Amino acid sequence: MGADLLENPISAVYTPFSFILIYEVYLLIYYLPKSITTYITKQYEIITLIIIRKLFKDLSSLELSSDWFEIKGDLQFTYDLIGSLLLFYLIFQFQKQGKKKFVPVDLIKPRIDKFVYKKKMIAVVLVPLFFGMALYTLVVWSLGFSLIPNELAPFESVNNLFFDEFFAVLILVDVVLLLISLFYTDQFNKIIRNSGFIISTILIRMSFGVSGAISTILIVAAVLFGLAMITVHNNYEKDMLLEGVKKK
Questions:
Q1: Please, which of 60, 70, 180, 223 could form a disulfide with 10 given CB 3.0 to 4.6 Å?
Q2: What is the model's pTM?
Q3: How do residues 112-143 score in pLDDT, each as one tens digit?
Q4: What's the CA angle centered on 156, arms 51 and 57, to 5 degrees?
């Protein structure tokens, strides 16, 4: 596998992207107490960067021929290329929806402060947890690479190192956030939105268990579902606000 990592200069871009992903994990934890939608956005950005990182590996092994759609590697590159473009646009739309606020902050600030405190506690727990997971993954992979290289997983699985377990933890975090939010709001639209975010994260996690077009489709479907959820949530909240103004 070492030869696969070093045989082409384009593959060298794989390592800098790994550091960018680590920084994105830090930002995800940083924004968790501040905003649920920003926290979810960071999840989407991380999975998109994973696909972009994989594109550089795919570029190094492209077989430029007239049989493009019959070569598995070239097809995977096509799936990831289209998928990354779609994800970039969907994340852009998700961020726009996440910035829309229809309820004055002053009316909900006391409840927000309590909820933010709980989220800070979760973030504090996640820092050593993710650091430990990353260190454990690095040590296990390094030992396997140096001691039993013939028994290592294929290069494709390197792209899933750490992040497979990372998104599994995020599913649990999303569930905990949903349960905590029930103590501070009984609004149906917010409960459904947060539940939808959990489903979105589960779809992303499932994408690590498959390959090819199915993996890319699952990721795009996850972000599209999250965008649909927040869009409906915003329209629901907007209509509720308008009804309240009319009653006054």
A1: 60
A2: 0.84
A3: 778 888 999 999 999 999 999 888 887 877 77
A4: 55
